[in-house]
Write a structure and sequence with these properties.
The chain has helices spanning about 10-30, 45-60, 75-90, 105-110, 125-130, 140-155, 170-180, 195-200, 250-255, 265-285; strands spanning about 5, 35-40, 65-70, 95, 160-165, 185-190, 205-210, 225-230, 235, 240-245, 260. The chain has about 300 residues and is an alpha/beta fold. The protein has 2 domains: about 30-115, 3-Layer(aba) Sandwich (Rossmann fold); about 140-265, Rossmann fold (3-Layer(aba) Sandwich), CATH 3.40.50.720. It has a 6-stranded parallel beta sheet with strand order 1-11-8-7-5-6. A 3-stranded parallel beta sheet has the order 3-2-4, with helices on both faces. Helix 1 runs parallel beside helix 10, helix 6 runs parallel beside helix 7 and helix 6 (about 140-155) crosses helix 10.
Length: about 300
């Protein structure tokens, strides 16, 4: 079997177009423009690139983008005061604090200072609790993107065996909650899991979120399974820098039914879902119907 390639780049472009159309309607019919504030503390080069990309994508779909660049030595009190101002600003519907923060700042404290309704990353403890209890929440962007691709490919996910490898708060755990919400039978695997190969071979849906280059080979994949590779790993091969996932793509694609490539799979969906969440937050704030197909 040769797997169908799930094209995350094309899917993300579709989601962004859907968001842009909805934003245009909101502006025309309600005089409302969704706004996303991104707070960057310090000069981390990778974070600067992410923030630049987020700004460009936000503007591209017709939303307002507010960038708050603060010096690395910003105190916790000053950062919390900035977040309080953004919480109170009616033009701001989504707030994202770019992680990692400099070491002297307590990320949990900072994230939990964001108003849950504006927490478009879905990391606030209230949103984590709402998701865990199956209530309406803000859902973390990367797992939301994976869920959208899975629903698009399968239609219903009910009854499928899903294995999520990785139990981080930003990917593995929320991914497992979302799959459970769609009535999969879910297993969460991690570094202490016994016979991971056998666990993976039982998966109709295999989500890899580990951070280890090409750790999952094709013979761990059940024939016909859908493989979602969240991993982004920078390696050097044949003297060239390359990005690879947590799954060994060539061997897995030979047995899977469908697979996301790296790059061009899950990655592009993450920013698209950030925009979708900002739109959702704006609609909820205005008491308007939520965009269809863009929430969990
Ligand atoms: P974390 O490092 O927070 O979590 C990794 C998880 O993998 C942990 O739960 C760990 O288990 C588990 N793990 C580590 N080694 C093994 C092993 N040998 N066997 C089984 N499980 C193992 O990573 P993240 O969840 O933040 O990210 C995972 C990957 O996804 C990374 O490559 C990251 O770059 C990528 N990523 C991609 C995004 C995108 O937009 N596409 C967004 C976010 C992340 P334990 O808990 O036992 O230590």
């Amino acid at each position: 079997m040769v797997a169908k390639v799930i094209d995350g780049k094309a899917f993300a472009a579709k989601v962004r177009a859907q968001v842009a159309a909805h934003v245009a309607r909101l502006r025309e019919e309600q005089g409302l423009q969704p706004g996303l504030a991104v707070v960057l503390v310090g000069e981390d080069p990778a974070s600067q690139v992410y923030v630049r990309n987020k700004h460009a994508s936000t503007v591209e779909v017709g939303m307002a983008s507010f960038e708050h660049r603060l010096p690395a030595e910003t105190s916790e009190a000053d950062l919390l005061a900035r977040i309080a101002r953004l919480n109170a600003d009616p033009a701001v519907h989504g707030i994202l604090v770019q992680l990692p923060l400099p070491k002297h700042l307590d990320s949990d404290l900072v994230i939990n200072a964001i108003a849950p309704a504006k927490d478009v990353d879905g990391f606030h403890i209230s949103n984590v609790g709402l998701l865990g209890t199956g209530q309406k929440s803000m859902v973390p962007c990367t797992p939301l993107g994976c869920l959208m691709m899975l629903r698009d490919h399968h239609g219903s996910l009910a009854g499928l065996n899903a294995v999520v490898v990785g139990r981080s708060n930003i990917v593995g755990k929320p991914m497992a909650q979302l799959l459970l919400g769609d009535s999969c039978t879910v297993t969460i695997a991690h570094s202490r899991t016994k016979d991971l190969a056998a666990v993976c071979r039982g998966a109709d849906i295999l989500v890899a979120a580990v951070g280890r280059p090409e750790m999952i080979p094709g013979d761990w994949v059940k024939p016909g399974a859908t493989v979602i590779d969240v991993g982004i790993n920078r390696i050097e091969r044949d003297g060239k820098a390359r990005l690879v996932g947590d799954v060994h793509y060539e061997s897995a694609a030979a047995v899977a039914g469908a697979i996301t490539p790296v790059p061009g799979g899950v990655g592009p969906m993450t920013i698209a879902c950030l925009l979708a969440n900002t739109l959702t937050a704006c609609c909820r704030a205005g008491g308007l119907p939520e965009p269809e197909g863009l929430t969990a």
